[in-house]
Amino acid sequence: MSYSAWILLTASLVGMSCGLVGVLLILRRMAMMADAISHSVLLGIVVAYLVTLQLSGIHMFIGAIIAGLVTALLVQSFHQLGVQQEASIGIVFTTLFAIGVILISTKAGNAHLDIQHSLMGEITFIPWNTVELPFVGSVPMAVVSLSIVLLIVLLVLLLFYKEWKLTSFDPVFAASIGIPVTLMHYIFMSLVSITSVAAFDAVGAIMVVAMLITPASAAYLWTDKLPTMLVLSCSFGVAAAWIGYYVAVWLDTSISGAMAFATGIIFLISFIAAPRYGIIAKHRRSRASAALTEHA
Predict the structure, then answer these.
(1) Looking at CB atoms within 10 Å, which of 127, 171, 214, 279 has the fewest?
(2) Are 72 and 128 within 8 A, CB to CB?
(3) Neighbouring C-beta atoms of residue 137, cutoff 10 Å
(4) Which pTM value belongs to this model?
């Protein structure tokens, strides 16, 4: 595959995995948790580096996942103690991210680990960091890790589809029929953490947040059916990856930044033109309702 094809494949995998997880985040009204986890994983990555003094390996992945789960636990704990959930999220993720920034500045200054990389990622370097696979050959490491994460997300969603649907739309009813709502919550937070970590190094925190929230929010405007919403969210994520890449090439600018911008354009189009909850559709329904009222 060509250099551009590997970048597009990597970004498309990010769009699909984040799109699937993002729908459940939106339905659970937990969009800010995407921002929190995608930033707090920086602390886990830095701590893993300081312990091992290596910038690659499974330890980085484990450290980041632990940081994501600690974020979810702290947010839930503060919320149960009476702090509003939005405030809990803001307090926890800014504190953990700040600690990560301080550790990078003071302890990891001589390593290829910096704030710009953590925010914007290094998707242009993806094709050069490869691994040899049997029967396939040389494949970018990010493509391998993101493919595995996408399969994990798909498998967990399919295995517990009924549970995700009930706990997202009516957690009280789900608990009343014996579904372990708290356990499902932390399984879901694990999915968010794994997805964020896999995408973090390739595309940075900004694009992770954009891909987790914006395509799912756009899909929510088009339909009330969960399966359709999941498919649309994935499709919007992939579309944003392709549009953003070619915009970045055209303007000679940041690829991750352009992809994040493309998600906003897709949301804006959906906000205006979506047949279910778009502005035009709402206006037409209002006019039709007013006309019926006049005739009555």
Answers:
(1) 279
(2) no
(3) 9
(4) 0.85
* Torsion angle (degrees, nearest 10) of CA 38, 15, 153, 49: -40
Cα-Cα end-to-end distance for the chain: 65
CATH of the domain at 170: 1.10.3470.10
Nearest one of 143, 203, 186 to 30, comparing CA atoms: 186
**CB-based burial label for 78 (10 Å; 0-12, 13-18, 19+):** middle
Report the domain count for the chain. Answer: 1
Interatomic CA distance for residues 113 and 106, integer angstroms: 12
Domain region containing 150: 3-295
CA neighbor of 165 nearest in space, from 32, 27, 34, 16: 27
